[in-house]
Specification:
Number of domains: 1
Distance between the termini: 30 Å
Helix content: 25-40%
CATH architecture: 3-Layer(aba) Sandwich
Order of helices and strands: EHEHHHEEEHEHEHEHHHHEHEHH
CATH superfamily: Alpha/Beta hydrolase fold, catalytic domain
Number of strands: 10
């Protein structure tokens, strides 16, 4: 999910193709629809619920204070942040988003149990663009060299939407670096995944931010949509992918869905424990895709969240993170 605060008119001219999934550039939603709520209702930091000695003896993780660092790799510079302690968990963002599109409360909750590593995709923030045509496989290779630069040998990987495609490719192309996969609201890359429905494609092109948000959050979940927007606005210098990168990412996603990436056609080669999750009423990614993905990866398990859409993992992040931690705990 990507919101635009600056250069919005230029970003709005780049429309993803009908098949492109993931984050949406929401024009003026933050400065218009939600700006009043930020001034009136947002706290100086993410809201936390702590009980007992934990609250008294240790400060909770706070991603808003985490600095952006730069790793220098054979595939160029990669901007990243680290927060927390414990088993490593790599987060891969979806279309048009940056590290600032992960809600602070979501990250802070994960960081209570994991060393959370997040980074910007190629051409976003401080991460270098990749030469030639951008592909999901190429983004997986750039992710691999980041892990090497950070001396992370085997990590659990959570990929959202386009990020879930990159996570699959990473597990195929660099299996020794992945210990487990959590694939959120994403698609198989063998050419058999269902495309975005026409109605959802129309929502992607709407100038109304409420309509755009409805592509991520279903009816009756306006509070969750608002909470998401207000959450990411807490980042002090919120940014998203530049317009040229949006077009490149859209093309990369389309190529993946059509089965043109080698790693996308090789999902059956994935041999790590895999959790496939999505909202049961995801308007962008038909829930049937979760079943197709689960069937393609040996031993994968699936979970659909009722009354939740493409952003299901943020709609009730406490429930999702509990399920994620339980899954990772079982696989070691």
């Amino acid at each position: 999910m990507a919101f635009c605060r600056r250069n919005c008119s230029a970003t709005a001219q780049v429309q993803p193709p009908a098949r492109a999934l993931g984050a949406i550039t929401v024009v003026a939603v933050l400065t218009g629809l939600f700006s009043g709520g930020v001034a009136a209702g947002a706290s100086s930091g993410p809201a936390r619920l702590l009980t007992g000695s934990r609250a008294e003896t240790a400060a909770p993780p706070n991603v808003l204070s985490a600095s952006t660092q730069v790793a220098h790799t054979p595939d160029g510079a990669v901007g990243y942040r680290e927060i927390g302690a414990g088993s490593p968990l790599l987060l891969i963002m979806g279309y048009a988003g940056s590290m600032d599109n992960w809600p602070p409360d979501f990250i802070d909750e994960l960081a209570e149990s994991h060393l959370v590593v997040m980074f910007d995709n190629a051409g976003v923030g401080k991460t270098s663009r990749l030469p030639g045509m951008l592909t999901i496989d190429a983004m997986a290779d750039q992710t691999s060299v980041l892990l090497t630069a950070l001396h992370l040998r085997r990590v659990a990987v959570l990929g959202w939407s386009m990020g879930g495609m990159t996570a699959q490719a990473l597990a195929v192309l660099h299996p020794s670096q992945v210990s487990a996969l959590v694939l959120a609201a994403t698609q198989l890359g063998n050419g058999k995944a269902l495309p975005v429905p026409a109605a959802a494609a129309a929502e992607l092109a709407s100038p109304d931010p409420r309509v755009l948000l409805s592509a991520l959050f279903p009816r009756g979940q306006a509070a969750a949509a608002r909470a998401y927007a207000l959450g990411i606005l807490q980042y002090p210098n919120f940014y998203t992918a530049p317009p040229g990168v949006l077009l490149a990412q859209s093309n990369a996603v389309t190529q993946w869905i059509e089965g043109k990436d080698a790693a996308g056609r090789a999902a059956s080669e994935i041999r790590v424990p895999t959790l496939v999750a999505d909202g049961a009423v995801d308007a962008l990614d038909p829930s049937r895709n979760a079943a197709l993905l689960t069937a393609a990866i040996k031993g994968a398990r699936a979970h659909l969240y009722p009354d939740a859409g493409h952003a299901f993992l943020f709609q009730d992040y406490t429930e999702f993170i509990s399920a994620l931690n339980s899954f990772l705990g079982q696989v070691g």
